[in-house]
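Throughout our pipeline, every protein is held as a single compact record rather than as scattered files. The record that follows is passed on verbatim for readers who wish to inspect the format.
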Amino acid sequence: MERSPFPHHGPLQPDQVAGREHLAVGLAQRIADRRLTALVGPRRYGKTSLLKRVAADLEAVGHQCVWIDLYERTSIADVAAAVDRGLAGIVGPVRNMLDSIAGTLSVHLGVLGVQLSRSPRHRPDPVLALRTLLEVLTTAAQRHSLFVVFDEFSGIAGVKGGAAVLRTELQHHFQSLGIVFAGSEPSTMRTLFSEQTQPFFAQADLVEVEPLAADIISGIVEDGFEGTGRSTGGITSRIAHLADGHPQRAMQLADALWRQVDRGGTADLRAWEAALGDVRAHVDAGSERIYGLMPPGQQKVLRAVAVEQSIYGTTASLLDLPPGTARDAAKTLAGKGILHRRGQYLAVVDPLLGDWLRRRFAI
């Protein structure tokens, strides 16, 4: 069976990342220059895929990436286990160096999760374990060109004392260790690096992952169709319009259309309607669940933004949405990465959620 040129489930392989060349080069240069960077963007905007590509590019010229995933971490023990897993994931000569350094500190990489599951009397102190693992990392960075990616770093906000331990152990090594903090909750990330009360205040430059431009989306779709012996028949403009810059949704829509067109064929409006119907059938239930879990004020704000890109227009008035409630709800939704600002206007980050809202409600 022929493989779709539009993968959209989970992180992409480095060679599959398209449309982010300028940002990838910029991030690689930042890492090489040891400039601390906080990469901010909504979920499913391709941050992990982008950083995987950057890591592959840098590893090709002798650097080594340590990938630490902090998704849903809730305790220091969780963070320590994530750092241990990241260090243990390294292979080759660098892993031998890490094991040698760890041995001098009386630790073994890759076993902390098991050790922490022991009874309280026999488990290691998680704070001490985390500090020791970070010492392994920083010592190794003095011997080899290392950089570390803290993925879903916004999760550290929910770990009491977690950011403080990281800052304490890393702050004297910023010149020898490249660091990227990536997070999907914009307000949390900005708080972590912009509030004076936070350990990492003013320690990293905030870099935004912007929506993909319509012409970039169209080019990716055209290339994918042509490379597999198909023609888009001009439907790319519809994909780019509905996707509204969302990388994953653009590829999902393109994949659905591609599956409607045989090799040698050309997409038409009938194929587009069938593809759109398939995608909607796949995502509508999830959109309804997301909406149903929100309080009324946030629901009204989403509906208003989906229709008018504003929380103060006719739709807000028809929904009896008070301005104060609208402002508070919009701020919360933007902080969670559900809404974002486009110049003077607001937009629903997930265009298919916006599409569902417009179809689901009369106003």
In short: DSSP finds 16 helices and seven strands in the chain. The longest strand covers residues 177-183.
